[in-house]
Amino acid sequence: MRGYTEFRPTGIKTDYPHVDLVQKLVTARVLYEERVVMTVRIDVGKNTVQKEGSLAELSHIASLKENGLLDDDMYVSMFRDWASVFIENDINDPAVYFEKQAES
Known about the structure:
The chain is an alpha+beta fold. Helices cover 31% and strands 31% of the residues.
């Protein structure tokens, strides 16, 4: 059987604009076309999450829905995992960390 896969950008980006290693707090965001649609604040020390916004407002984009990319819980889980990595490894600038990983 033969087939092919076509990769297209979704327009969804994530970033981590704030990491406080002392307080063990991480802020993560989901952006669509450079606009913030969801913000997640993770308190790694207290193991709590606060979410503002939702990916539901992107439901009009069929390709995102078809590929399971509109799942808030999936993003929250990913953000929690990365927040733990940042705090445990004293990473206060995730953008620099990801750039270094890409160069490796």
